[in-house]
Design brief:
With 200 residues, this protein is α+β, with helices and mostly antiparallel strands. It is 26% helix and 32% strand.
Length: 200
């Protein structure tokens, strides 16, 4: 199902909603991407952006490679591996990913990350991570500026307030975008300061 939201008066941004099932992703096209072999991409760095005192490389590599090169998303990548979502994040896309930093994961209550990484909690972990992903669209900060919208992720809706920076509100938490528009070959990454949590 595709939801069309008009931003800035006349610019359509398509935000796709994929219903989550027992498989990795229910939508056939996206599930096919998850199971297909991914191609390696040579990293071709165009420029770097300073974020919170560190250097984040904006590259033509895919989302997983771009996050790994940044050096501040080790927990996110470990979680994606444990949840079985790396193949999807390396797929064709386009994807919009709201990526919590290692500091954001560290700010969760003690033991939360360790518990989610247990094999028996794979589904719960996947649910948390999918709340950070919009499939089928590359949503950039210019699309959100000055807007108050609802964005459909792979695990429910986020309230997005772009009237003063960009603030995301999920059922269980609120996060602020601290660095926007980090391009990847299959989408775009927005760095956030808090892990988004589903209800409950």
């Amino acid at each position: 199902m595709v939801r069309v939201i008009l931003l800035n008066g006349d610019t359509p941004v398509k935000i796709a909603t994929l219903l989550v099932s027992a498989s990795l992703f229910a939508a056939p096209a996206f599930a096919e991407q998850c199971s297909s072999k991914t191609q390696s991409h040579a990293v071709n760095v165009s420029y770097s952006t300073a974020i919170a005192g560190e250097s984040y490389k904006k590259a033509s590599s895919d989302i997983v490679e771009t996050a790994a090169a940044a050096g501040s998303f080790s927990t996110l990548l470990a979680a994606a591996e444990a949840a079985g979502l790396v193949g999807a994040l390396k797929g064709e896309g386009p994807l919009t990913v709201f990526a919590p930093t290692d500091e954001a994961f560290a700010a969760l209550p003690a033991g939360t990350v360790e518990t989610l990484l247990l094999p028996e909690n794979q589904d719960a972990l996947a649910g948390v991570l999918k709340l950070h992903v919009i499939a089928g669209a590359k949503v950039k900060s210019i699309d959100l500026a000055g807007q108050q919208i609802t964005a459909s992720t792979l695990n429910g809706d986020l309230a997005v307030d772009g009237t003063d920076g960009v603030v995301l509100t999920a059922p269980g938490s609120t996060a602020t975008v601290i660095a926007a528009d980090v391009s990847a070959s299959n989408g775009v990454i927005h760095v956030i300061d808090t892990v988004l949590l589903p209800a409950g």
